[in-house]
Amino acid sequence: MMHSTGTATVRPFKSTPYWWEDCAFAPLPVMPLAARCDVAIVGGGYAGLSAAIELARAGLNVQLFDRQPIGQAASSRNGGMASGSIRPSRKQLIHRFGEARANAILMEGKAARDDLQTFLDEEKVECDFFLSGLFDGAINDRECEELSRYAELLQRFLGIEAFSVSRAEVPRYIGTDFYAGGFVRMDIGGLHPAKLLDGILRIARASGATIHENTAVLATSADVGGVRVATSRGEVFAKKVLVCTDAYTDGFDPWLRRRIVPVRSRIVATEPLGDGVMDRLMPKRMMYGDTRQLSYYYRPSPDGSRILFGGRDGTTEGDPLSPTTHLRSELGRIFPDLQNVALSHSWFGQVAMHRDMIPRLFTAGDTVYATGFCGSGVVWARWLGKKAALKLIGRTDDAGSAFDFDRAPKAVPFYRGRPWFIPAVYSLYEWRDKRAIRLGKQSDRRP
Ligand SMILES: Cc1cc2nc3c(=O)[nH]c(=O)nc-3n(C[C@H](O)[C@H](O)[C@H](O)COP(=O)(O)OP(=O)(O)OC[C@H]3O[C@@H](n4cnc5c(N)ncnc54)[C@H](O)[C@@H]3O)c2cc1C
Q: Domain 31-133+188-260+355-416: which CATH class?
């Protein structure tokens, strides 16, 4: 189907997420604003809506505000890989937080992944969840050794089924000779992200939370006993505020904005490839990633008919064609048969990076923040939204969270919300990836 972008260019693919083909968000009924509430939540993605469920079920009066229609931001645009990854290594975590906290952070990943599955089962959320396992490809021998050590750590320390994969074994998991080896972990699965959001939204509404979409929070200010929340539809008073705006944080909170850098992530979807092709390229229908700095991630669609291939986009404005072309060529590099494959969709969304590079829960005055998921929020945003709510309720039976820090991530120097440095960082990472692949190829030629 031809798609007009509104510019002179006519593209042979849609620029809306593939997920929206079978999951549309109907407009919500417009509800009157209540002048007072217990908690005002800003942001209606996985984090904000999950918090709303806990708070409303605890009997609190909750109003959630989203400046867009629900279902427009990262929570319905992502790759649906339920990874709960942590970017820093265990060594880096120990260096920064000490061994006990580092271990608690890693253990919580396991708890959060398990909790997602329990939630889906108990609340009967149909979102095509499948515990597929994840294959991570190494681009050179050095990365292979690192992955092998990581597999051992997951196995020994967390009891997760994980093992390294030699170059000769790679075709069992993926039809490519691009990788020098890799590793597999079986605790990660895939799901349909928009259906997950739709399920969480349904439960939040049924729990009694009031959802105000198309209602921007413009500013908050401390007042006696709570916070005045100025919205595009009027002012409300809330005893507490919970901010879950992640990469879509706008000028309403300039303090947070200086700490969170929105980075575009893009996914392209191929046209259906046919069973034979999928059997050859993704014989185990897993989730896939690799060790490159530009973080490529890919997977089969839930019906197994096509490949969704994602990576960093590198642009900050407009919707240029170059990131799509780049992703298609990277897809063709891993799977040479797909060099000229037709794409049905190419879309982008924003992920929230910050200087700490781990998801965070923190408090400033009467405001609690659950945000900064560093491109890994399918597990973390739901989990930390829930944890933030339990903190607000003051639930003493909850063990709390190792991600609950008493301070926010540090502000990014010379940054106020326009990420001017992204193209330069992207070019640096691209150069490093090319170098790492070149080094890998050179070591292949050694006698
Ligand atoms: C292309 C892409 C691929 C990804 N792939 C994966 C993946 O495979 N696995 C994974 O774990 N994670 C992935 N992620 C990351 C994941 O989607 C996010 O971490 C997660 O959805 C964040 O959820 P959230 O609730 O914090 O924020 P969001 O879902 O982004 O919601 C934030 C909301 O805040 C609202 N908002 C902002 N400012 C205001 C305001 N002033 N007033 C009212 N509302 C406001 C916005 O409108 C928005 O709806 C990906 C992200 C993208 C973009």
A: alpha beta
